[in-house]
Design goal:
By secondary structure, the protein is mostly helical. Helices cover about 70% and strands about 0% of the residues. The chain has 2 domains: about 140 residues, Leucine-rich Repeat Variant (Alpha Horseshoe); about 110 residues, Leucine-rich Repeat Variant (Alpha Horseshoe), CATH 1.25.10. Helix 12 runs antiparallel to helix 13. The structure holds tryptophan.
Length: about 270
């Protein structure tokens, strides 16, 4: 949509009263969040408004205006819902779409805003309970945030945070065994790689708790096809080995990651 109507975003945002209408649409769902009484028609209407808001979030001229008006914060109560029926799932998906559009810009201001408003636990919740597309967007947001140093430091700042992220990444990875999703896999691998690169205890903890998949030759071989993913795999396994060496020096012993799965250094 943003490509088709490049100037739709500023046009929308600057139209009189539109920001208030966006807000009104989002807030109209609140009474239906708990107890859950959201109808499919209501959900569709708000999702349509959120699709337009996503357009505003994508555009470089309007992105920061949206943030300065704190509009993303009004999506948080929606992201906190856990009702599994379709109207709620779509609403969460559309809300994550807006946040996903914001993080695509890779700007520090966006990351700082989202981190300080505690988007990470909300993404983790959606990664855990969402269907495939919802999981993918929530994971994409976490991946984008962790691709920035500020975001990675934030996640690795306390053991609770680090373990919360690691636990949910493991859950998502495990869910892929039942329901494979190459696009989700492509996002989850860099998340592990980024965590493993952290020099704090987070990196060490990751190495000693790396899911079995990363010791499985067939799983690793399946990742060779996509060069970007393969690069992340190599980084992850290199970091894991380096962390392991550090922990062996620190502890004077330890288990190992299988050398069979070591990526060749081409
Ligand atoms: N207030 C919590 C914290 O700062 C927010 C939080 C909960 C969190 N779970 C998290 C942050 C997981 C990062 C990762 O730790």
């Amino acid at each position: 949509m943003t490509d088709l109507f490049h100037d739709l975003a500023p046009l929308l945002w600057n139209a009189f009263g539109i920001a208030a209408v966006f807000l009104q649409e989002i807030i109209s769902t609140y009474p239906a969040l708990s107890p859950p009484t959201l109808t499919p028609a209501h959900s569709i209407r708000v999702c349509n408004a959120l699709a337009l808001l996503q357009c505003v979030a994508c555009h470089p001229d309007t992105r920061m205006l949206l943030i300065k008006a704190y509009i993303p914060l009004y999506l948080y109560p929606i992201l906190r819902t856990t009702n599994m029926s379709a109207p709620y799932e779509f609403l969460r998906l559309a809300s994550l779409g807006v946040i996903g559009a914001l993080v695509k810009a890779n700007t520090k201001e966006v990351f700082t805003f989202l981190l300080s408003s505690e988007i990470i636990p909300l993404c983790l919740l959606n990664m855990e309970i969402g269907r495939e597309t919802t999981k993918t967007i929530a994971t994409f947001i976490v991946e984008k945030i962790m691709s920035d140093e500020v975001g990675l430091d934030y996640v690795c700042a306390t053991a609770e945070r680090y373990f919360a992220v690691g636990r949910v990444l493991d859950i998502v990875l495990e869910s892929l065994e039942k329901q494979p999703s190459p696009r989700l896999l492509k996002i989850i691998i860099p998340c592990y790689a980024r965590l493993s690169s952290n020099p704090s205890r987070a990196g060490l903890a990751l190495t000693s708790n790396l899911p079995d998949n990363f010791g499985d030759v067939t799983f690793i071989d399946g990742l060779r096809e996509d060069p970007t993913t393969w690069n992340w795999v190599k980084q992850l396994l290199d970091n894991a080995r380096a962390n392991q060496a550090r922990s062996v020096i620190g502890r004077g012993g330890g288990g190992g990651i299988d050398d069979n799965v070591a990526p060749s250094s081409e």
